[in-house]
Amino acid sequence: MRRCRFLAQSICVLLLVFAPVRSQAETARPLTLAQALKRAVAANPRLVVAEREIGVFTGRSIQAGAFPNPEISVDVEDIAGSGAYRGTASAQTTLTLGQLIEFPGKRDARMAAASGDLDATRWQRQAERLDVLSETAIAFANILGQQRRIQIFDAVIASLDGLGPLLQRRVDQGASSQAEIGRAQVAADLLRADRERTKTALSTARRELAALMGGNAPDFGPAVGDFGAVGRAPPFAALLRGLEDHPQLAKWTAVRAARKSELLSARLKPLPDVRVAVGYRHFNETRDNAMTFGLSAQLPLWDQNQGNILSAQETLAKTDAERAVNKSALVVLLGRAYDALDGAQRELSILQTSAIPKAREAVRTIESGYAQGRYTLIELLDTQSAFAQSVLREQEALVAYHTAVATIEWLTGAPMMRARTR
Fold it and tell me: Do residues 341 and 349 touch, judged by C-beta distance below 8 A?
């Protein structure tokens, strides 16, 4: 009877695995999802790069509005010659101040193009932020899943190890062969091997999350959260409408504005700018002074910038197609995530309402009967394996569910039903 009580206790340990994890004492400072997201936003290197990109294009926008600098020149004529022009007695010295006046609209077009590039960069920064948040949430869910798998393996291994004394007693009584002890040990060892593989996967997932949060190595304890919380997704049509507000699509409005301004700049470039100059001239020979005035402009005879105009036209024309390609890729990702979420929900429904309860009941029945000699070890091991596989499948489905939710949130920019942690 003591053996039966031990087996019942081991099953209770296994069942407790599926209660939401709130705290563990493996290491210090457990990490919640909210903390992970906050750290990722504050320290992820990709967001630092995105901020610097905004600074780069801010500088270009400022520079685009700069006026041409004035020019100053000094000309000395009629010196170092012969006769009356020997030395500097007949020199003429001219001090000239000139200014380039751009054709109307050139500066405005240049500024508009730079402003469009800056706006597009800001949208890209928002898209990068959503990307980082999504990857962090997925990495966090993966860690929760791996932690839960280790707990499942520990509970099943403990249950199998608890069979040792009972098996030995049955062997001593002649009710079982010595091979059954080895069979149970092999089953437990295979589970230990799976547990070690899962520990490796957990270590890798923790390193990936640490990198997303800007660290070189994990400096946090176990991930904690209500991993089992799930909900229904909104209709796909509603999510598709939300996709229109995604920064990767919103940025194309700014890109189009920038490219229209670049085309205008290309068309305005051949139009001549005017250079005006005013000067002061001194005649050494007569000690007289005079003013000079100048006006110059290029004649657009040979180069009318036709090549650059054509290039700008084609670049603008392909903007809508590029946006369509971008949207198509996002729609495919959204559809894939939605199907994965829907499939995970249906899988969880089958596992939680039928497979796991039936497997749990079967384990209880077989373990109780095995202690009384009514079932074989193979039947017991098969039942325990089926139960373990069903709960491991549940964890895989939960990870798939939370991964799909994080992807949908990234694409639509709106939180759904992902489990939040306190």
Answer: no
